[in-house]
User: Fold these one by one.
Assistant:
Number 1:
Amino acid sequence: MTARAGADVPVEASVEQVRAQVAAWLAENWQPGGGGPQWRERLVDSGWAAPTWPVEWFGRGLHRDLRRVVAEEFTRAGAKPAALDVTQLFANTILAHGTDEQKRSFVRPLALGEQQGCLLYSEPGAGSDLAALQTRAERDGDTWVVNGQKVWTSGAREATHGFLVARTDWDVPKHRGLTFFWLPLDQPGVDIRPIHQVTGGSEFNEVFLTDAVVADSHRLGEVDGGWRVLQTALGFERLIMGAAAGGSSRQRRPAGGGETTLADRQSPWTRQIGGADYVELAKKVGKADDPVTRQEIARLYTLEKVNAWNGLRARADAGRGASSPLASIGKLAMSRIVHTGVSVTTNLLGTSSVLDGDTDPVAAEVNRSSFAAFVTSIGGGTDQIQRNIIGERVLGLPREPEVDKLVPFREVRKAQATRRFS
Amino acid sequence: MLTTGQYLGSTGRLEATVGTFEFTDDHEALRSTVRAFVEETFPEAQVRRLMAAPSALERPVWERMARELGLQGLVVPEEHGGAGAGPVELAIVLEEFGRRLVPVPFLSTALATIALTGGDRAVTAGYLEAVAEGRVVATVALAEDDGGWDAAGVHCAAVSDDGDGGAGDRGGWRLTGTKSFVPDGMDADLLVVAARTPAGVGLFAVDGAADGVSRSELEVFDLTRRLARVRLDGVAATPLSAPADTAAFDRFLDAARVAVAAEQAGGADFTLAMAVGYAKERVQFGRAIGSFQAIKHLCADALVDVESARSAAYYGAWAIAQDSPEVATVAPLAKAFCSDTFFATAQTNMQVHGGISFTYEHPAHLYYRRAKSGAQLWGSPRANRDLLATRIGL
């Protein structure tokens, strides 16, 4: 851990070197079937849990192109690569914007899973327009006092802390008066309530902050500089989503040079409508010969396939270092797929689609999916916001004029700041 | 002007097709060479001049395409004077031609070439060499007056001169019937004709100048793709392969679907670029109209479709190159999706342009016309989706 292993070595030159280092470390430290807290601790302290983090902060200082090499060696040995430098968005953000003291205090507990984070961004009055948030943080000596409400917080009940964005200056335009904190949740001023969702589940929470306190030592970045920190954190969130959506852009093809075909890459959602796929369901309900049904199913199949191919093409483009608009369109495309899928299955079921529960489990599944489709078309940026992003960032169309851009936030027309959903 | 040798790289041929969607430097060089050629040779003024001319074919340009760029020989095997490239490379060229509505009979000749390469080389070698050298314009005559684009729509009768007309009969044949919607049928020196034998449907080579061939030009909506009706009255014909080789015929149809899809993807891509370009420069209400979400969202939705169309066409090309069983589903999928996308994008383009798109002087209508004809020729989106439904098990 004293040498800056590979940090300044050109990527090509150090691949084999890194491979050998990982293999040697695993040979010494990994027992097949192992795991558990002791292994986790050893892994984190070795730097191999987050190879691209700096050597002094639990990493190996490697170039990000070498992540793949590390992961391959772990997989080869039968150990799960931690890849915290991809998945640990809290530590990633703290490493990007934190002080040395903050890195010392927070990164290791996060890496070990002793601390867990949640995201306190959205509010009842700040959804698509996140910069319009109204939770206020007011300074009181070395601490800040926080009042307001956050919403759509997943994992809040399991988390120890949250990334909080709060307004600290009301007399400047909206983006310029925000500050970013690492807020401890285990305190009287924090009230977490699960939201009863239309799907029947409660993955999301609302978080009421009433004179909650956070030490100034838990502030990330400058006072009123929170928007910048937030952009970094959102970037790390997209990195996780990108990894979840398709793995590494430099994924190796299977041995023998075979190409991954897409036949088995069906969207899991469509294959699990009452345990049958569309084709089987159409046959079961006697509509396999119905021309409209055939068109609808072929069209849905097409939408799923082209989106999967877009994903493959995006990774191939990224592998060649070519810029590609493909990465930006997947979410919007998926929204159309899931809503179309619900429409197709509902048409297949016909009248029985009005049933629910144990009376008709297939209909119940379709009904649940019909609501779940809105997670794609609303969550993480609505389809309309996605279209703005595609229009502006990919196609280069001009932005809509913003009436609140240069106005002190205090004077801006605002949505209702709090609203209890639970 | 770059030559074949330059864009095919130092080995003299395109690198064998590698992993799906992995375009090589040779592919990019091919694309930029063809784009430069098309932009230089077929600017809009030239396209409009050819629209008004008795024929869109100018032999010197056609010969230059073959001699200097090797385009007609792109998918002709090397031993017959071609570059020995495959469907991926052809897709790139067709995409570029589609972007600029190039009115020369390239797609027609390419489809005929696909049919020829799938045939018996003892029969097709001479044709392939003539195509690669630019001496011959070729087309495929598939549909008839009822406008069907599969074996069921083929009624033109093939009768054996001397044999029994069975599957193994390779003697002289005579064709009688009427083919219609034949792309570039007036200009073609070589007609690849789908005809029905007692044993099934097959593809036959017919000399355009042979006795018994009479053609008439159809009045068409698409001003950059000409169609002809071709009467065959006991015309001498040579089967490209065993006359009732249904599998070869199906393979040809799938390859044709993907090739047409690639051309449409190019047209769609260019049409969207036109719309976006105009949305950035046209000012109303004191701002560029592209800043209005009503316009911006039309363009964003079109981008999703256009990129998806390109993926479908490329995937289809790669599936053919890899001789994958997926061809059966990808080919009708790509044709249907690229057809719908090009047409929808051409509509969006006219809508974004507003009044100016209603003028003959503006090119938006030329793309709309091309999108409409491309959608119906080689099988409508509906027919292809129905075929897809069958092929996924419905």
Note: DSSP finds twelve helices and nine strands in chain B.
Number 2:
Amino acid sequence: MEQRSNTFLDNASEALKNTGQAKRRDSMARLTPLLRSAAIEDAGDFESLRQQMKQVRQHSLDNLAHYLTQFEQEAVHNGNRMHFARDAEELNSIVLDICQQHDARRVVKGKSMVTEETGLNSFLQRAGLDVMETDLGEYIIQQAVETPSHIVTPALHKSAEEVRELFKDKHDLGPRALEDTTDMVAEARQVLREHFLKAEVGIIGANALIAENGYSMLVTNEGNGDLCANLPKTLIVCTTIDRILPRAEDATAMLRLLARSATGQSQTAYTSFYSGPSRDGDVDGPQETHIVLLDNARSEMLTGDYREMLECIRCGACLNHCPIFASVGGHAYGWVYPGPMGSVLTPLLTSLEQSNALPNACTSCGRCAEVCPADIPLPDLLRDLRHEETLEKLSPSRWRLGLKLHAWVSQQPWLYRALTATIIPLLHLMGRRRGSFTRLPFASGWTNERNFPAPQKKTFMQLYKAGMKKPNE
Amino acid sequence: MNEQQHGDHPASNESMQVSLFVTCLADLFRPAVAFASIKLLEQANCEVTVPPSQTCCGQPAYNSGDYEATVPLARKVIEILEPADYVVVPSGSCAGMICQHYPRLLEGEWRDRALQLASKTFELTTFLTQIAKIQPLSEQSTELPTITYHDACAGLRELNIKEQPRQLLQELCGVAVKELDQSDVCCGFGGTFCAKMPEISGKMVGDKLDNALATGAKILTGGDLGCLLNLAGRAQRQGEDLEIRHIAELLCGDLDTPPIGQSGQR
């Protein structure tokens, strides 16, 4: 996927001007936290659940090589073929090879952010394959030739009206008007059924890999994952190495947090465990199954300063609670993963140079960390990325030097007092008539959006030293 | 999230020795906040000193990622404040910086000293409700109009400041806060964020102001001057008839000082 993270501010500006989408984002930003908090309350002790989850995730990562080996053994024992891909290109080639070995022409896909990360669809399409997304949201944006704007609800940016127009344009509707959303869902289902039945290969993602039995776990609300997994003759599960959990019990513990954090459901409509190819006597299921595990910088993260980010369970709660995501939407972030988790992941999976605006798209308000079911300190990780940005001198030099100078002057009290005792009374005189400035040199970022309040007569330190008990205006 | 870790604080009738960390924004833009804080602390039977060489806690550089520039400043602040029995800060974000972020930033002996300082450093409304419990003055009679309260993020999430200001407004001023819709959402200040990403910040502060205006309150107050300067600047830009004042000013009945961003010569 082409990256546009370095134009974040322009992307954001454009997004803010799209009033229709901005309005929908506002209502989603009000709704989703309510849904989540109701569901979390219902789950009992959120804090101990998430600490338990954190321990399990940490333990899995501490022993990643061990559990990956165990998973591989068990998965192979179940009849799966295992593949490891170092990077995006390798994953794409492995998948294409499998498709070509089976002379496949048609592929159906379940929702998978990992294959968004590797750009699998366009890679397969360039090789002449017909690739059909089957998650409703993914299907919609595929038809519209767009990218996901949210990791859980990829077509969040689309209105029902836009989807209706899209279907009118892309489908042969005849006289049908698709008045209700249920009509639209039925329409998509009808179209997708055909594809499920014709496809030779199904590709799905995974929410977890279970080391003790070699199963992969997938949650969906539409059941499309199961159709992708069971109808085509060949199944390919694409996911990353960090999805590993030791036991089935850990995966079900994760389920208690995942759907509640993601959509406010106590559980998703479908939770599936895939063991491998169908066995004698099974009524359905694929004849051949592959599991492709992608690294793509994860093993680097494992030994680096941002390791906690590997504990992310991809619920999207941080997106739903981020006021900046709510303001600008997912596309502004310019790559696959948006919001707070995306602002940490994007620099790590691509480069900080290409995406250094993202860690700055944060007020450190802490709402993301408060709701994160994996208890990832996202604002701290984002600040640490800004630290790297500073060290690598990627931020504008006037900011960098200005802040250094401010920190230095703040260590020289006499100089600080002398400067502020000159500037503040002057600012007061200039601004006292109106009480605030509509413009100030060196502060256009501030004054573009709001006035700059004028200070009181003198600094507190001046007044206090003079023995005053009040600012005495 | 993380509760402030504090040691035992003996309750006694002796007055407590408190050092006020004024914060740079109060020093430079709103001395009224510091004067009000002193008055409130004295009312709560504290002896207040203002360490003279204090400046800024270092949040601008720290939050922008310049840890190297912040470390010497943080050490300086520790040196200045650590002789105190208690340190009181009329700002959740500056108190959070000292209590949560200095220990994260510093290492070795300095980290220990940071933790020591953190154990006796309090945001103003927390201190007045939990450590030196303030009693209303019998003659306190300033009639306050309707008030809404902005929960600043750092105070809310780093120091659990939520009930404290509401309790004080009720006990000292006899007013109940008219609650803001979306009260746990950031106002878009975020330190240098507001100047680095003005358009997004403008959207956020606009939303916050809309929610404040929707309460019908005459005064919007809060515990952090950063947020309040942001909100006051936006209110002035939009020409809104809303007074914005720091909680300390209201608690000590100071309505003579013109609201933030407004002139006294209207």
Note: Chain B has two domains: 16-131, 147-251.
